[in-house]
Amino acid sequence: MILAVLLYTGYEFGYKAARARDQEWQGTIAEKSRQRIWWKGFKKPLEGNQYRYYDYFWNVRCDDESVVEVEVLYGLWNRSKVGDPVRKSKGERWPVIDTPEAEKNRELTDEILKNVF
Asked: What is the pTM of this model?
């Protein structure tokens, strides 16, 4: 059991994160999907936040006409719509929505965090 936890942690925070940081692309969201996390049980939760029981994905049609499936955080997945422009910069772990409103929100968040910390 300990070996399984170590392997999963190494994959999730080591290999997967490093591979994501090495990618660079730009495109639009073609499809949004979610997949049930099998190890969190098969019963639907009765109450509380159900977002924890799923992995969230975008299918992005890149500017070079290729299609990339990207796992994203729930908050980012929830704020996005099909057709939104997105970009993934090299060195960053997560893609961002590439609209003027989203850029303004990121700047405001950065300013607030700068003042808090």
From this structure: 0.74
Domain containing residue 47: CATH number: 2.40.50
Rounded Cα distance between 101 and 57, Å, is 22
Residue spans of beta strands (DSSP E) within 1-117: 25-36, 54-62, 67-72, 85-88, 96-97
The pair of structure tokens assigned to 23 is: 């990618």
Cβ neighbors of 44 (< 8 A, separation 6 or more) are: 50, 53
- Provide the domain limits for residue 108: 24-116
Long-range contacts of 71-74 (CB under 8 A, 24+ apart): none
**Nearest in space to 55 (alpha carbons), one of 83, 32, 26, 23:** 32
Q: In 10 A of CB 72, how many CB atoms?
A: 22
% of the chain residues with pLDDT over 90: 54
Residue 31 inside a domain? The answer is yes
